[in-house]
Amino acid sequence: MSTTDLASDFAARGPWAVGVLETEIASPGDPLDAERHLPCEVWYPAAEGEVARDDASHPLGLTHQATHGLAPHSAPCPLIAFSHGNSGLRQQSTFLMTHLASWGFVVAAPDHLGNTFSEMIELPDENARREVHLRARAQRPSDLSAVIRAIVDEGHERHALPGVRQDSIGVLGHSYGAWTTLKMAAIEPRIASLCCLAPVSEAFVGRRAFEAGELPLPESVASLVIAAKDDVLVDFDTSILPLFERLGPSAELEVLDRADHFHFCDGLELLHKMHENTPRSGLPRPPRPLAELRSQGDTHTWLNERVTRFYRGTLGATGGNAT
Fold it and tell me: pTM of the prediction?
């Protein structure tokens, strides 16, 4: 990253109050489900003078720093589309979504239907999970593409959102969602940058995780990979590094030390406890106790700063160029 940006404290909350709305977006990517409509959360910078109450609902009952019903900012904004992880949900990382919106980005996150937490937990056995996993490989990139097109083409009129700068579109994802993010450069030519948090690749997705020509990424697309050094689900040495080496010479890698796979999410204590108590075969080592790892507050501050700096540098700012 450029050292000229160090004067801006992107770890602090940005200058705009954050509005949020819930909508549905049709995804035509599944021939078996013509009526596939994705619940989608959209966070946006509010108009000047709007006052945040930070009272938006959260599926885990956690603090959600956004407010329903705020008027949107009047200036065109860069767009970031977010893809959640396997067995995740659209509100899994509201700490980061709302932080980006406070710095002038419209952030849109769909539920990848069939691959969300509430659906996956109901599956009866491993065969059922495998079927969902294979279907999600085809659905996820189409889902994210549908969200980008809907927000860019219809967001202002249909959803009362700020206008979106069509030259400033980015994608962001965690885990399976980070793999989804890497697929998007070949699908959406308007994408200018992408950020991958703990991206999975062949070890999780399967041997055809990427098609011919998808990697390396185009030189015109800025890319940042952020990995957790103590991640036992996506191992740094055997999974992250081999994938990163295939992304191309313009890709950047940053490593979050003393962090595991769910440090990128809200509700770290709850999720890490579930992580520790869920038996999985084939892990390189058991998860470290949370007491030995970074705190949620420290981790989220670090991530807010790194990810916001990346997008401000590659997508610019609301109403104009990067500052």
Answer: 0.93
